Each structure stands twice: as structure tokens, then as C-alpha cells.
Amino acid sequence: MEVTNRFITIKNPVDAAPRESDFETKAEALSLKLEPGSIDIIVKNLYVSIDPYQINRLKSHSSSQSASSFAVRIIPGDTIDASGVARVVASGNPEFEKGDLVVGLLAWGDYTVVKPGGMLRKFDPMGFPLSYQVGILGFSGLTAYAGLFEIGKPKKGEKVFVSAASGSVGHLVGQYAKLFGCYVVGSAGSKEKVTLLKDKLGFDDAFNYKEETDLKAALKRYFPDGIDIYFDNVGAEMQEAAIANMNTYGRVAVCGVISEYTDGKKRAAPEMLDVIYKRIKFQGFLAADHLNLYQDFISTTCNHLRSGAIYPLEDISDGVESIPSAFTGLFQGGNIGKKVVRITEE
Predict the structure, then answer these.
(1) Do 127 and 166 lie in a common domain?
(2) Between β-strands 81-91 and 41-49, what pairing exists: parallel, antiparallel or unpaired?
(3) What is the mean pLDDT of the segment spanning 298-314?
(4) Has residue 264 got a pLDDT over 80?
(5) Please, which residues have CB within 8 angstroms of residue 224's CB and are 6 or more apart in sequence?
(6) Which residues contact 232 (CB under 8 A, 6 or more apart)?
(7) pLDDT band at 277 (very low <50, low <70, confident <90, very high)
(8) CA distances from 121 to 58, 88, 117, 191 (A)
(9) Domain containing residue 262
(10) Is there a contact between 247 and 228 (Cβ–Cβ < 8 Å)?
(11) Same domain? 117 vs 147
(12) What is the DSSP string of 42-76?
């Protein structure tokens, strides 16, 4: 059997804010019958993750491209891979059978041919939506969990600030911190998001950073006794303001710097004397660094989901053709929660 496989690629390197016109949809014939002796696996993609960090892979150059195998450069015309959920349609690998549900690195497209050594594993949905595997039960959730508990190392009653708090990672960080017994404030980019953080997700407080003319003063207002943990998804001026308001022995978990990804002139310049004299721990991290936490993370998070203690936000678009707009929307503040594209309905 032969099918038409559509997939998304870029026309040229994307060195500024991404536009839908930077992308194109290609189509190729794909045989769903493997050659004798092949150990490839062909999967039909169901959901793919849409993440801001991918912009650094699409650039002509980014220091991140040589720092991690998850961040290698995407050449124009090549397929773009991301975390995703799929159903096996053909397998030459004895560990996988037709019909298996799998999660791993998949193409932004209809189908993926997974070569030997490709990142792929079977999973049990455990009664949860399949999309959770690329969100709260996937790398977004592990990033939030590991960043807070391994880098932040919270103590009950400590004060936690989360930037981009309505995003795929931030909205989970705030909920984990609240469940642990911390005081949590988040920043977001609209009144709607601020209301959601306080009324739906249980943040103690939240503010719209676009309405603040002095971020240092704003954080002083929300944290009169200082910040113990800052979970940084933004970088730039917000990072500077948070450092200025940190308590002695404060911890900064640097997860992302989305405000700097598409603006080469924006760079954080925190007061390093504060870092030194307040003995602030300042650490970047990747979820892949903390796979040893996976079982604890899954067990804890599933318990929270089943009890209704944690509420995952998802923003789901439909179809391969929606991927470019889904991705560009991340940099326009359009999404709330985890951005996912549903490739097909089962």
C-alpha cells in the first residue's frame, strides 16, 4: 500500500520572528510495506508537539545547535522532528508490532519512518488523553517537575515566581509549587491569562507584564519579602528584575529565554553583584538531564491528575497544514498551555 505523506519544512533559515511564509508543505509517496530485512518502523502520527525552542534549530546559526543532540540545526527542505504520539503501521523491529501506540521523536507530518536508533517507545495511556504524552506526561511536564524540584529545591512556604506562567511549562510549575506548599506568583501577557492563573490554576497572584512600566518595582510589590525561586522561561528584562528581588540563597532555574529567541538585541544583564553577595544559584537545564526522575514524576503527576489536583492546559490545532500557524503563534502570545497539533483522529 502506498500513501501520500505530507510534511512541513522551512524554505530558508529563520533568523527573525517566524512567519507562516517561512514554511512549506511537501508531499511524497510513501510505501507502507517494508523491504525484506528492514528493521525500520513506520508510524502514523497522531499528535506532535509545538515548542518555542525549535526556533533555534531553524536559524542559520545558534550556539544551542552544537550543544545538544536535541537541538541540531534543521536544514531547509529537511523534515522537522519533535516529540509526538503515533500508531505503528508497519515494523521490521521485533520490539514493535503493528497497532502499538508509541511516543518519540516524530516528523511534523502525516507519517514518520523511524530508523534504527531512533527515539521511540511504547506506552500505556493509563486512561488519559493521548495528547498528554507530549504535554503534562511528556517533556513539558518533566521539565516543570525537574526544574522546580531538582534545580529549585523548594521548601514549604517559600516564594516562587514563574514567568510565562500560562505556557506549556510555566502553568505546571506553578501548580506543582502550590501543591508542595509554596507561595506562587506568575506573569503572563494578557488579562485573560492572569485571570486563568488565579481562578483556574490556583496561583496566589499573577500580573500582566505588559501593563508594568517597571518590572523591578512590580516584583517588589508582589514579593515584598523577596523571591526564593525564580523559574525563568523568558530571560531579558524579566530575568534582571527577578534577580534584583531574589533573597539570599535564592535559586534560578533557567528553562528558556523566549523573549531573546527572535530579538538579537535583547539579552539579560542581571546584576552579578546580587548573584555573588546573595549567593544565588543560577542554573540552566534540559529535561533530558533528569530522566532519572521519570518514574517519580509520572507517579506523582498521575496521582495529581486522577485526584483533580492539577489541571493541564492544552491548545490543540488540527491537521498538518496548521503546524506553521501553530508554531508562529507561540511567538505572538496566542497560545495558552501546551501547544499541540492533532495530525489525525483515530
Answers:
(1) no
(2) antiparallel
(3) 98
(4) no
(5) none
(6) 163, 238, 239, 242, 252, 253, 254, 255, 256, 257
(7) very high
(8) 26, 11, 11, 40
(9) 139-288
(10) yes
(11) no
(12) EEEEEEEE--GGGHHHHSS--GGGGT-GGGPPPPT
Tell whether 34 and 143 lie within a shared domain: no
- Judge whether 268 and 247 are in contact, CB under 8 Å: no
pLDDT at position 47 is 98
Instruction: Give per-residue burial for 54-85: e unless 16+ CB within 10 Å, then b.
Output: bbbbbbeebebeeeeebbebbeeeebbbbbbb
Residue 127 inside a domain? The answer is yes
* Contact between 84 and 103 (Cβ < 8 Å): yes
Instruction: Please state the domain count of the chain.
Output: 2
pLDDT at 334: 81
Cell representation of residue 302: 498521575
The answer to whether the pTM exceeds 0.90 is yes
Domain match, 149 and 131 both: no
Whether residues 197 and 336 fall in one domain: no
Core vs surface per residue 204-220: b (16+ CB within 10 A) or e: bebbbbeebeebeebbe
In CATH, what number is assigned to the domain containing residue 76? 3.90.180.10
290 pLDDT more than 80: yes
DSSP lists the bridge partners of residue 184 as 160
Q: Is 234 left (phi over 0), alpha (psi -120 to 50) or beta?
A: alpha
d(C-alpha 149, C-alpha 158), whole Å: 13
Residue 234 has a pLDDT of: 95
Cα distances (Å, whole numbers) of residue 172 to 33, 141, 156, 187, 295: 41, 7, 17, 13, 17
Q: How far is CA 96 from the centre of its chain?
A: 27
Q: Helix (H, G, I), strand (E, B), or coil: what is residue 228? A: strand
User: Which one, of 145, 57, 156, 35, lies nearest residue 108 by Cα?
Assistant: 57
CA triplet 232, 74, 59: central angle to 5 degrees?
55
The pLDDT-based confidence of 228 (bands split at 50, 70, 90) is: very high
Whole-angstrom distance, CA of residue 56 vs CA of residue 74: 9
